[in-house]
Design brief:
265 residues, alpha/beta, Rossmann fold, 10 helices, globular
Amino acid sequence: MKTVTRNALITGASAGIGAAFARHLAAEGYSLLLVARRIERLHDLAKELTAKHGVRCDVFAVDLNDPAAPSSIMAFAEEKGISIDVLINNAGLSSKTSFADTPWPQLGAEIQLMVTAVTELCHRVLPGMRARGWGRIINLSSLAAFSPPGASLLYTGIKSYVLNISQSLDMELKPQGIHVTALCPGFTHSEFHDTMGTREAANKLPSILWQQADEVAREGWDAVMKGKPVWVPGMLNKLLASTMRPLPMALQYHIGNRLNPFKES
């Protein structure tokens, strides 16, 4: 019997956790659609993965701050005949200035990238996943989603939204064969802190707080395949998350699920 090749769309795939997911899924035999702004990085990664694993890798350069980006990604996939079986919403950033002092276009771009684009891509891939009766979605939240709100941090509120919407989608879609997981990493070695200009402060943190991107990706993939709606990678991060929320996340999830008016009887 011929094995059906599944296709994975990964945003923010040019570096960090996104690139780690690409390498992990290529090793598992998935064809990839890699999305990020830096086309040269995407081409280099695609060549690496095709040479090493023999998988198909398409690349699409787009800035997800652009409201038209999700529709352009899906139009490209349709043009290339790529059905999206796996969605990894990984692209993200964080402002390094106070809310009041940050120009609105910058704040709006942050919301577009990590709220609107994430939600729209989930919505756009679902018709195909539902038709095939199988799908996997990982939305990158953060350990910050478990913490009390921080002054001026739009990032914390955004990641809390990603955490909550992922659970809601999983409740709705799991009976249809679609698993949705909010992946909530803590400090992870990547280019994120260089891009945000916080590398100096990050380097002062104890090494025990840090994980490698490939560890986060591996744990995230295991979690979504096992149907875990929320996953905090790393034992120390799990401990930190458990101390920051009054109720265990699993209990919060099951309470929400029981109250879900759309749940199939």
